[in-house]
């Protein structure tokens, strides 16, 4: 068995590679106090691994044990027999807590109690035994013997640990009196170092000797490996000298060793420790330097002999208990265990927040910043204390350092902070106030005890009063001050306030939203016209149409020039044509001239804005936003919107879309100003016939340029081999920086040097001026070191530099550029980390000398042409122009929908989707021959090309899957035998959805997740009867390249929508003409820009917990909260808000599984945000915390339900109902509805929405039961403050009924007997079809997930024929089961399944 190693990489994909007999997997989870914040991530990791196991067929078994001081079994290997039960239990795991961490005892316990036959272990049968240990700290007891015992039992142990780091300085008494004890001191240091995890980003060690004065043997950054440190320690020579000046030595290490330049990472928050080995009383005074070290946060442990002064050692030590004693230095081993148990210090942290009038809009971001910092502190064990003070003219304490003792209390209070307001801003007075009233013992400050005092100032402007004297007074008290300011603050004033100019690396604005900057090509634009097509604009529509014509006539329309789209809207939006539909001005004008007024009401401008953001300003619809092309929306509006426009308008602006709103006298002027990119972009006319009067004004707005920008990172080879070439590299960086626009915050720059490991010279947000960057670059020193690990450096950049916290603006769409200068071949692998950076959207240019490996540089670069070569670094100027041109010309596609991954172009998965409807009967032989000819040119094989054929009309049917045949001959034989299917109508949308869910899947042979190109060739002979938009878009998002080939009966624009690109829509007159497009098809197939799925690669050396393991996705759900915001719920509203937060915390939002919307209502509803407004849990929680009670009366629940059906559970509002994603509504009501709820509730249920209603005692319980899908889904509480009591019940109910829509393991949705009564009783509620039981077609039932056991429900099969979708197994059983007395025959064609004796299948079905 491999040894237990902290941080060892574990690839759960290994589990899947093994066939039977399976394995017994035990997870041992560190549940000690120190892992509280990380426990949810541990829980998620266990879930992801369990997802990959084969539990349901009893191959694999799972157990989970948590431990701290002692272990606690969560469940044994034989407790659960299904994956669903295990996952449910894992999701509900609660953190154990406790200390100390006894890993040894836990391992012993597993051997005695878990890896045993009685606990379900199959070790005696030879089944592999696997232990996965997740640990967050060092074990307090010994692990050697119990780990060895487990290995002897044959248990394979994987240990995954978190990474911690310390800076440890040994201060050794080297005076004459310790000459004979010095070897023992040296050995002691050796033994301590042997237990450390030494490394650049791990533990660092320094040794200093002293007598009269101090001398450094080596600094914290001298050595980066444990071996080097030990070699140096073993070579230490006794220094000698007298007298013994311990005070001077303490002062020396504070000023010269615990510093940034000497390798101390104090400012990065790494714990600082000083271990003093002392043999006598100090000749000088130790009080002041000892106090200074404590104020700096250094934990001093003093170890003395009988010759030392005990009281002096206690003064020096961080705490008197940290003063340890031995008789002689030879007794040092006796205190080693005692030494390792010492804890890091705490700190008192005060936040001083600018609450003046000028920070009103930025205050929520400040509040969030404070929350994020508090999350990292250790409050609960009384290490850290926190206070918050707001100020403007004068200060106001929100809470003192001793007000709260738990992190939860602090976070609750911070979330509820309200902006203070007021002016002027008196920062000086506030600082003075802190010294007098907050950094005091009575207010909870532990300054007299030596606990570090920290002040974090967030300021949004220049102080009106003087800050010098009060800031100086705080520093004299030992307060460490960090000042963070926005661009409106006075940077010089902030530097005066702060202790150290280094702190000003934080001076960038951390909390005010900056506008997105994009590279702009003013030679082209993407322009979308959004036209009010509601009933009220009927007579003005011709004038709107003419206005659009006149604007288009002035544009330079073309594929690589201007692009145009037109969308009309009223209740919902409809695209007339997309940005990539037409490529000439004439075609656009022809389409505009043919526009017909749409009509409809009400006018939902908010929903329309959201729709164009999600469906038109996208890559697949022709938007070139990610390439830096300006995005423009021109809204022509004739009335006030019925829904809210704030959120969608804001979302468009954040996406960088310039919105110009043009309204008539019927429009709401303030609404138009909100919608427009800038209030000045809101234009006005009396009637639409006056539009020509604003055309000139519009043109001038359209011509305004937006500033470009990019984030540029230089990665410089600083290894030993580049020493002579380093000055040339430095000059090259300077010359490139000279060409950038840094000063106006367009471009940002970072420089990183690397050899064995990387070292950041400065981050993207360290400097804001070109002068600062150039000064730093000129002063760069060569790093040195070997070997050259380029792969590790690339990985480091992805994890630490191309991140928001380091200044990267990647989330805002700003292009990310990496320029690598390399002088040699990398010692480690570059493939995975380079691929990971490309997936992040980073554009990589690599420049190497003749000593570099050109092939390796090409692998690293996005394109081989981006790998440039020079003989020596002194030749770099020769490629500078080439580099700059490439950077400017290249298209940076940072879209998460199309990440760049390694694609194996030597093989493809090709699916033919054939129109088999009645109308293609005579053309089918030609289709079949066409497929034959294409297949004949393919290289079919298990690891080569794979082929599938699907026919469709009303619904789709697979002729054979991608993994059915492995030779070309077998495929051709099957193709030649294809029979025309027939049927109508033609549902192309449903067929596209079917192939996405059932054919392009792992179980059907698709290798999409392995990066193999996925291709769909559609042969179509008519217009689809259903909608193709959503399924076509879903295929594109999945990376499938669709080529649509149609006849004259097909709808050309429909084919263009379906195809991956409009140019991939090919056309023939009849199917007999298909040979004419075969060459064209081959060309497309060979040049198509195949997109692979966004699967995070497993990178060597990186923790498994940092990745989502490749696996099939869970179903997800769309969850809408409908909150009673009427007058009667004012006092209960905070409890409602908290309840929503708690439920959202349990959802999987960040991976786009779950979506959330919140709507408040009283007389009428108000959407707080839609299902597609936010894509991260953090954004949702932020918004929920800020919800304000709506108020109003009466309570119209019926109208609110109706509104949800019309405006929220819709595709334009983000609902994925058309894609089969479960729709969940959670209603919180505090009273009886004034209007009728029956019809709107029934309408929602017909849409497939699952409704849960929770009411207080003031609500009408019967009404809530009517609203809910089932009476058991109507829950009751006395008051809203009692909502936590039903949360678990609600979540269990939601989980029990949500459909698992995964195509890879379809869920059997119920159990039918052959009796008509059972079908007619139960199915109408679920299917809405009373005759389902007598039909041979599949019935598509609502959200019922089977949780029953028994042979008759154990088969997980695809829907085929027979009532309720029981598959081939069911159909076979129906045919083979004879009619017996007491059982109805099967003559009616219904499906009968054998049930166990005494089981009423009808009841079983109802329960399921």
Give an overview in words:
With 1408 residues, the protein is α/β, with parallel strands linked by helices. It has 43 helices and 40 strands. Strand 30 (946-952) and strand 31 (956-960) form a beta hairpin. Keywords: Cell adhesion, Collagen, Extracellular matrix, Repeat, Secreted, Signal. InterPro entries: Collagen-VI/PIF, VWF_A, vWFA_dom_sf. GO terms for molecular function: extracellular matrix structural constituent conferring tensile strength. One of its GO terms (cellular component) is collagen trimer.
What would you say about this model in short?
This is Collagen, type VI, alpha 3. Helix content is 30%, strand content 18%. It is of the alpha/beta class and 1408 residues long.
Defining traits:
single chain, 1408 residues, alpha/beta, six-stranded mixed sheet, 30% helix, disordered N terminus, disordered C terminus
What percent strand?
15-25%
Radius of gyration: 35 Å
Query: What oligomeric state is this?
Result: single chain
Low-pLDDT runs: 1-20, 500-522, 704-708, 891-905, 1089-1114, 1299-1408
Q: Count all strands and give the number.
A: 40
Measured between the Cα atoms of the first and last residue, the distance is: 45 Å
Specify the number of helices: 43
| Residues in helix, % | 25-40%
The gross shape turns out to be: globular
Widest beta sheet: strand line-up? 8-7-6-9-10-11
Return the structural class: alpha/beta
Report the average pLDDT across residues. Answer: 81
* Main beta sheet: 6 strands, mixed
Biased composition (Polar residues): 1375-1395
Protein name: Collagen, type VI, alpha 3
Domain VWFA: 24-161, 167-339, 348-527, 526-698, 711-883, 909-1081, 1118-1290
Keywords: Cell adhesion, Collagen, Extracellular matrix, Repeat, Secreted, Signal
């Amino acid at each position: 068995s491999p040894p237990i190693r902290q941080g060892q990489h574990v690839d759960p994909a290994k589990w899947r590679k093994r066939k039977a007999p399976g394995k017994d997997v035990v997870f041992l989870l560190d549940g000690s106090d120190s892992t509280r914040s990380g426990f949810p991530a541990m829980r998620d990791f266990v879930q992801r691994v369990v997802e990959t196991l084969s539990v349901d067929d009893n191959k694999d078994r799972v157990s989970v044990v948590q431990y701290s001081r002692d272990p606690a079994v969560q469940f044994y290997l034989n407790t659960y027999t299904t994956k669903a039960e295990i996952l449910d239990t894992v999701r509900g795991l609660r953190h154990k807590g406790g200390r100390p961490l006894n890993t040894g005892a836990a391992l012993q316990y597993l051997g005695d109690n878990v890896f045993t036959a009685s606990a379900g272990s199959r070790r005696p049968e030879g089944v592999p035994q696997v232990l996965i240990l997740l640990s967050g700290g060092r074990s307090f007891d010994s692990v050697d013997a119990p780990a060895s015992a487990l290995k002897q039992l044959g248990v394979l142990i994987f240990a995954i640990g978190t990474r911690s780091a310390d800076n440890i300085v040994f201060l050794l008494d080297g005076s004459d009196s310790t000459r004979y004890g010095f070897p023992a001191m040296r050995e002691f240091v050796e033994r301590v170092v042997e237990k450390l995890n030494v490394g650049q980003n791990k533990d660092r060690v320094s040794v200093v000797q002293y007598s009269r004065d101090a001398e450094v043997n080596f600094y914290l950054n001298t050595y980066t490996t444990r071996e080097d440190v030990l070699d140096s320690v073993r070579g230490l020579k006794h220094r000698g000298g007298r007298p013994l000046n311990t005070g001077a030595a303490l002062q020396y290490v504070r000023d010269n060793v615990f510093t940034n330049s000497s390798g101390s990472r104090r400012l990065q928050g790494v714990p600082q420790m000083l271990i003093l080995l002392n043999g006598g009383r100090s000749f000088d005074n130790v009080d002041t330097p000892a106090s200074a070290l404590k104020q700096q946060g250094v934990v001093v442990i003093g170890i003395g002999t009988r010759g030392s002064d005990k009281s002096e050692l206690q003064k020096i030590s961080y705490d008197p208990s940290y003063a340890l004693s031995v008789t002689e230095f030879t007794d040092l081993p006796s205190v080693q265990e005692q030494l390792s148990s010492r804890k890091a210090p705490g700190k008192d942290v005060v936040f001083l927040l600018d609450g003046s009038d000028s920070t009103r809009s930025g205050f929520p971001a400040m509040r969030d910043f404070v929350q994020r910092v508090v999350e990292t502190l250790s409050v609960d064990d009384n290490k850290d204390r926190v206070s918050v003070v707001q100020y403007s003219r004068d200060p106001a304490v929100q809470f003192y350092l001793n007000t709260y003792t738990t992190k939860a209390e602090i976070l609750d209070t911070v979330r509820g902070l309200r902006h203070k307001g007021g002016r002027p801003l008196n920062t000086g007075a506030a600082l003075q106030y802190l010294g007098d009233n907050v950094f005091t013992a009575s207010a909870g400050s532990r300054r007299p005890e030596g606990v570090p005092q920290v002040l974090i100032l967030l300021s949004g402007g220049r102080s009106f009063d003087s800050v010098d004297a009060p800031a100086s007074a705080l520093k004299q008290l030992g307060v460490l001050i960090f000042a963070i300011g926005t661009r409106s603050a006075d940077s010089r004033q902030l530097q005066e306030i702060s202790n150290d100019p280094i702190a000003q690396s934080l001076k960038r604005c951390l909390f005010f939203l900056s506008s997105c900057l994009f590279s702009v090509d003013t030679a082209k634009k993407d322009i979308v016209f959004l036209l009010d097509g509601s009933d009220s604009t009927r007579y003005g529509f011709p004038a709107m149409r003419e206005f659009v014509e006149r604007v288009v006539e002035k544009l330079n329309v073309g594929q690589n020039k201007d692009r145009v789209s037109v969308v009309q809207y009223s209740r919902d939006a409809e695209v007339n044509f997309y940005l990539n539909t037409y490529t000439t001005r004439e075609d656009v004008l022809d389409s505009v001239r043919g526009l017909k007024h749409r009509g409809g009401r009400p006018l939902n401008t908010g929903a329309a804005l959201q729709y164009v953001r999600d469906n038109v300003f996208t890559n697949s619809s022709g938007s070139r936003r990610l390439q830096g092309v300006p995005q423009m929306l021109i809204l022509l509006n004739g009335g006030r919107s019925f829904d809210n426009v704030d959120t969608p308008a804001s979302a468009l602006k954040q996406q960088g879309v310039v919105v110009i709103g043009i309204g008539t006298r019927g429009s709401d002027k303030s609404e138009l100003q909100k919608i427009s990119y800038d209030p000045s972009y809101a234009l006005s006319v009396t009637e639409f016939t006056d539009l020509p009067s604003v055309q000139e004004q519009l043109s001038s707005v359209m011509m305004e340029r937006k500033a470009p920008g990019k984030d540029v990172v230089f990665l410089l080879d600083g290894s030993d081999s580049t020493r002579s070439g380093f000055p040339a590299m430095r000059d090259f960086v300077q010359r490139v920086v000279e060409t950038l626009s840094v000063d106006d915050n367009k471009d940002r720059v970072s420089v990183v040097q690397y050899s064995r490991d990387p070292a950041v010279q400065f981050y993207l947000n360290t400097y804001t001026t070109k002068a600062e960057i150039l000064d730093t670059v000129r002063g760069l020193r060569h790093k040195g070191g070997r070997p050259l690990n380029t792969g590790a450096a690339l990985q480091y950049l992805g994890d630490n530099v191309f991140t928001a916290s380091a200044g990267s603006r990647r989330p805002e769409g700003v292009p990310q550029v990496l320029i690598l200068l390399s002088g040699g071949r990398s010692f480690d692998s570059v493939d995975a980390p380079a691929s990971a950076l490309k997936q992040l959207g980073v554009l990589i240019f690599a420049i190497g000398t003749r000593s570099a490996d050109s092939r390796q540089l090409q692998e690293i670069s996005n394109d081989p042409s981006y790998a440039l070569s020079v003989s020596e670094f002194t030749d770099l100027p020769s490629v500078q122009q080439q580099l700059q041109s490439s950077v400017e010309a290249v298209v940076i596609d940072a879209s998460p929908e199309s990440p760049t991954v390694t694609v194996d172009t030597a093989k493809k998965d090709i699916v033919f989707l054939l129109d088999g409807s009645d109308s293609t009967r005579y053309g089918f032989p030609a289709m079949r021959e066409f497929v034959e000819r294409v297949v004949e040119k393919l290289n079919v094989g298990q690891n080569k090309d794979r082929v599938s054929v699907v026919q469709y009309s009303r619904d789709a049917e697979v002729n054979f899957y991608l993994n059915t045949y492995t030779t070309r001959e077998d495929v051709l034989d099957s193709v030649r035998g294809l029979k025309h299917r027939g049927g109508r109508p033609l549902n192309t949308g449903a067929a596209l959805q079917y192939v996405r869910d059932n054919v392009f899947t792992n179980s059907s042979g698709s290798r999409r997740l392995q990066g193999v190109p996925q291709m769909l060739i559609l042969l179509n002979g008519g217009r689809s009867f259903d909608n193709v938009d959503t399924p076509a878009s879903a295929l594109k998002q999945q990376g499938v390249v669709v080529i649509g080939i149609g006849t004259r009966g097909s709808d050309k624009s429909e084919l263009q929508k379906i195809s991956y690109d409009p140019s991939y829509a090919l056309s023939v007159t009849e199917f007999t003409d298909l040979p004419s497009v075969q060459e064209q098809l081959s060309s497309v197939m060979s040049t198509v820009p195949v997109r692979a799925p966004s699967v995070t690669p497993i990178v060597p050396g990186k923790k498994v917990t940092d990745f989502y393991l490749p696996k099939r996705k869970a179903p997800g759900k769309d969850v809408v909260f409908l909150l009673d915001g009427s007058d009667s719920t004012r006092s209960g509203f905070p409890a409602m808000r908290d309840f929503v937060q708690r439920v959202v915390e349990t959802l999987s939002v960040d991976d786009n599984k779950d979506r959330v919307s919140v709507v408040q209502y009283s007389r009428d509803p108000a959407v707080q945000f839609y299902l597609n407004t936010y894509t991260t849990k953090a954004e949702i929680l932020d918004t929920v915390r800020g919800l304000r009670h709506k108020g109003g009366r009466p309570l119209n629940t019926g109208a609110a339900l109706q509104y949800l059906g019309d405006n929220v559970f819709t595709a334009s509002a983000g609902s994925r109902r058309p894609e089969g994603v479960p729709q969940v509504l959670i209603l919180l009501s505090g009273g009886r509805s004034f209007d009728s709820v029956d019809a709107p509730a029934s309408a929602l249920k017909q849409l497939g929405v699952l409704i849960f209603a929770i009411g207080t005692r003031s609500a009408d319980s019967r009404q809530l039961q009517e609203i809910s899908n089932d009476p058991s889904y109507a829950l009751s509480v006395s008051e809203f403050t009692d909502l936590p009591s039903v949360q678990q019940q609600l979540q269990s109910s939601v989980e029990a009924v949500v459909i698992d829509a995964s195509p890879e393991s379809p869920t059997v949705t119920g159990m039918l007997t052959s009796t008509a009564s059972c079908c007619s009783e139960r199915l109408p509620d679920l299917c809405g079809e009373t005759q389902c039981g007598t039909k041979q077609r599949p019935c598509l039932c609502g959200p019922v997930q089977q949780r029953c056991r028994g042979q008759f429900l154990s088969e997980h099969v695809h829907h085929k024929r027979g009532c309720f979708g029981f598959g081939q197994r069911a159909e076979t059983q129906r045919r083979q089961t004879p009619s017996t007395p007491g059982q109805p025959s099967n003559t009616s064609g219904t499906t009968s399944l054998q049930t166990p004796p005494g089981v009423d299948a009808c009841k079983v079905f109802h329960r399921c």
